[in-house]
Amino acid sequence: MNEAAKETDLPRRIASIGIVPVVQLPRPDLALPAAVEVAVYRIVTEALTNVVRHAEAARCWLRIEARDVVEIEVMDDGVGLPPGPPVGVGLAAMRERAAELGGTVTVGPRSPHGTRLHVLLPAALPMSEHSERMARAAESGDQ
After folding, report:
1. pLDDT tens, residue by residue, 89-98
2. Which residue of 21, 34, 44, 51 is 20 to 30 Å from 140, comparing CA positions?
3. How many domains does the chain fold into?
4. Is the dihedral of CA 26, 5, 48, 42 positive or negative?
């Protein structure tokens, strides 16, 4: 995963302002489509930014696992969500990014306090009709 180096820098930046990060990342040689890598990086960046800006947290957990799906979990021990449905430009952007790839974003309380963000993204993207034709042509020797 090429963006892994960038993601490992985020916890260091968070630690520099006093929040203790706990990080689990997938192996660095994992190959994901570029669109998925970018979505993971942007969603993680926004989620950690939200922890810094809003959570008043002492600790933050980031877990990324990738198999047939990419699972992102960001949790904090902060003040939690305000009453009512979660809103905000950052959360809307994360949901939009995930939806573009066929993924989902859920956010809610973390017990006993804090917030939990959970994201599922496909680890592979379906081929476009054009890409499928090109692949069939390459297989049959027609180009």
Report:
1. 999 999 999 9
2. 34
3. 1
4. negative
